[in-house]
Amino acid sequence: MQKKTYTYLFFLFLTIGLYGQEREIFKDTTVSTQHSLKLNNKQLDYTAISGMQPLWNDKDEVIASLHYTYYRKKTKNQKAGQERPLVISFNGGPGSASAWMHIAYTGPKLLKISDEGYPVQPYGIKDNPHSILDVADILYVNPVNTGYSRMVKTDDKKPKREQFFGINADIRYLANWLNTFVNRHNKWLAPKYLIGESYGGTRVSGLALELQKQQWMYLNGVILVSPADYLTFESDTPLAASLFLPYYTATAWYHKQLPSDLQNQDLEDILPQAEKYAYETLLPALAKGSSLKTSKKEKIATELERMTGIDTQLFVDHHLALPSNVFWKELLNQPGNDKTIGRLDSRYLGIDKKRSGNRPDYNAELTSWLHAFTPAINYYLREGLNFKTDLKYNMFGPVHPWDRTNNNTREQLRQAMAQNPYLNVLFQTGYYDGATTYFHSKYTSNQLDPGGKMKDRIDFKTYRSGHMMYLRKEDLKTATEDIRAFIKKSIPKNGKPAKY
């Protein structure tokens, strides 16, 4: 059910040259549409606002215009709307648009896919019976060069890329942009939450402190969906490699590649064994490097074959630090029926030209997702939200090179929590995610507060799917319920002071 109304602010036009043509977008505009959704057997009426909001530099010049979509539940009065929780959603990449969680997770609409997350035709959109709109208003933001968001020329010159494309630059300009949004929509009284997926986890971890220190905006929660903590992946090999082991075990179990004594157990019964082995045996062995005795290396490699389905000799050849790309290529590399497995979700299968090689020819899961998401988001924005432009919607935009230096986002999130007793953190991870694995995230959650003083404000949830756990119907229901519970838990009772 939908009624359409339109509101355009200022009609400031930006002309940019793309593909040899002149295309016009609005620097500052909104399109509002009215909708209703059935949630928990109740009708929920809401307003959808899709638009472009400018970003200014220190000279008050517009240097970018960011596309966003904002869903606001209709309330009995203005004050109730101002006090409603606000969830601010970012995807990752870096360079990824916000489409993924927008039309597959928390928003009021879902793209049409199978119950396990595979594309189906006809493409399209349907109502999301699991949307979190019943407990919070939701804002989806496309950073610069993603979605319809673009840099803006000043005096016929584009702004310098380093203002946007780096860990710390990204955090700074998005905090400024969010301040403008909160002002415009009068959400200062609302409990506020950031949710970030993949690289978006890095982004929102840093934003939590940046908003506190530079915008004086304090949060109630940060939700990290399959977060990419580069500190775990870019550390020395012993730590980074050992943290992959439980994921290897989970994926081998899913594809029935483990010996019967392990395969016949439930997944969550065998993973603690893999976690213990990763920490207590594999990590110390890798740390020894060349001083590890050959006999010990071979013994560990034999046990690793048992726990992963990967041949002992491959572990020996890689000095026990098996690269994940080799795992994706080799797990199902069997004569006559060889398949590769997906990186972001290893339930997905691919077909390579040759059995030889050390990595799959393509990411089976990503091609599948783009197959479903691209037509759905383009159709929905134009026909469902009436936001029409000739610009290309960048599912992945040109943001590289990306400056990854001075990454202190994990510590920034810790500081934000320490300085704000209201701030809670929720991790959501999938067992079959081979890019940002659940055990890397578990390590991050343990290191976030190594002293354990804030552990009652950190929740960790796992799901039997991959990077985008919400694509699996069963996990969509569970994961959105986990977010609802987290939001309710993190809103203090009236009058409860924020103090230790």
UniProtKB/TrEMBL annotation:
Regions annotated as coiled coil: none
Pfam families found in the cross-reference section: Peptidase_S10
MF-aspect GO terms: serine-type carboxypeptidase activity
Single Gene Ontology BP annotation: proteolysis
UniProt cross-references to InterPro entries, sorted A to Z: AB_hydrolase_fold (IPR029058), Peptidase_S10 (IPR001563), Ser_caboxypep_ser_AS (IPR018202)
Key words, A-Z: Carboxypeptidase, Glycoprotein, Hydrolase, Protease, Signal
SUPFAM superfamilies: alpha/beta-Hydrolases
Protein name, as recorded: Carboxypeptidase
Species per Swiss-Prot/TrEMBL record: Haloflavibacter putidus
Lineage start: Bacteria, Pseudomonadati, Bacteroidota, Flavobacteriia, Flavobacteriales
